[in-house]
Design brief:
mainly alpha, 10 helices, 0% strand, elongated
Length: 255
C-alpha cells in the first residue's frame, strides 16, 4: 500500500520564499546604498574613537592637575611660599572648572599671607568664597578673610566675616567666635564683646580656651554670666502682713 504523502499548505510553501526574499532585499539595499552604509559605519567608529580619546585626555589632565596641586601643597607646608604661589596660581588660572582649580584659590591666599601680601590674600579668598560651595571650606575661608581684614585695619569688615563664619558648623567655628569677640572689643563695642564671650562659654563650656575667655571678660569688667535683672525703679514691692501681736490660735487678722 503506498504511503500517504504529506501535503504542504500554501502558507508553508511561501515561508522559504519569504526568507529568501528578505535576504535578497537586504542584499539589494546594501548594494544600492553601500556608500551610505560605509559612511554610517565610519561615523560610529570615529565617534567611539573620539569618545575614548576625550575620556583618556580628561583622565590624564585630571591626574596631572592633582599632581600639581599636591606639589604646591607640599611647598606651602614647607613654607616655600613663592613656589606654592606659582603652583596654586597656575592651577587657578588653567583649571578653573575643576575642584583642584577652585581649591587652589584658597591655598593661594595662604601662600600670599605667608609673604605678608594681605591684600592679594583677601582678593583670593573673596574669589574662592564666591565660587566654592562647601560649608567646611567656607568656615575656614571666612575666618581667614576676617583675619586679612583685621591685618589691613578694617575691623568692621573683619567682624562681619567672623560673624558669618561663627554661624557655620565648620572646623573654624570656635576660632571665628573668639576672633569676633576680640574684634568687637578692639572696636570699642564692650557690650557686643561681652555677649560674644558669654555666648562662646555657653556653646563651648569645656573648651581649652575657657580660662582665656574668663580673663578677657575680667579685663572688660564683666563676669561669665550676666547679673540678674534688677526690679524696675518705682515698682511696688509686695508687703507680707504679719499677724497681730497676742493673736491666739484660731484668731483671724483684720483686713
Amino acid at each position: 500500500m503506498p504511503s500517504r504523502q504529506h501535503r504542504l499548505t500554501r502558507k508553508q510553501l511561501k515561508r522559504p520564499d519569504e526568507f529568501l526574499n528578505f535576504f535578497e532585499r537586504l542584499r539589494d539595499f546594501i548594494a544600492n546604498n553601500l556608500t551610505q552604509v560605509m559612511m554610517a559605519t565610519g561615523v560610529v567608529v570615529v565617534a567611539v574613537i573620539l569618545l575614548i580619546a576625550v575620556l583618556w585626555y580628561q583622565q590624564t589632565r585630571e591626574q596631572a592637575a592633582g599632581e600639581k596641586f599636591y606639589a604646591a601643597l607640599a611647598a606651602l607646608n614647607s613654607k616655600d611660599y613663592k613656589a606654592a604661589e606659582e603652583g596654586f596660581s597656575t592651577l587657578a588660572r588653567d583649571e578653573p572648572d575643576r575642584r583642584v582649580g577652585r581649591l587652589a584659590r584658597f591655598y593661594l591666599a595662604n601662600a600670599y599671607a605667608g609673604q605678608n601680601q594681605f591684600t592679594k590674600a583677601r582678593t583670593a579668598l573673596a574669589a574662592f568664597i564666591a565660587d566654592f560651595r562647601d560649608p567646611n571650606f567656607a568656615s575656614l575661608a571666612l575666618t581667614d578673610l576676617g583675619a586679612m581684614h583685621e591685618r589691613l585695619g578694617d575691623l568692621p569688615k573683619a567682624a562681619n566675616s567672623y560673624r558669618q563664619a561663627a554661624q557655620l558648623d565648620g572646623p573654624a567655628q570656635l576660632r571665628a567666635r573668639l576672633s569676633l569677640a576680640r574684634t568687637l572689643a578692639a572696636m570699642g563695642d564692650r557690650n557686643g564683646a561681652v555677649q560674644a564671650y558669654r555666648d562662646f562659654l555657653a556653646t563651648h563650656p569645656y573648651s581649652q580656651e575657657r580660662q582665656q575667655v574668663l580673663e578677657s571678660l575680667a579685663l572688660l569688667g564683666a563676669s561669665a554670666q550676666a547679673p540678674p535683672a534688677r526690679a524696675a525703679s518705682g515698682a511696688v514691692k509686695p508687703v507680707l502682713i504679719q499677724p497681730a501681736a497676742g493673736a491666739g490660735k484660731g484668731a483671724t487678722a483684720a483686713p
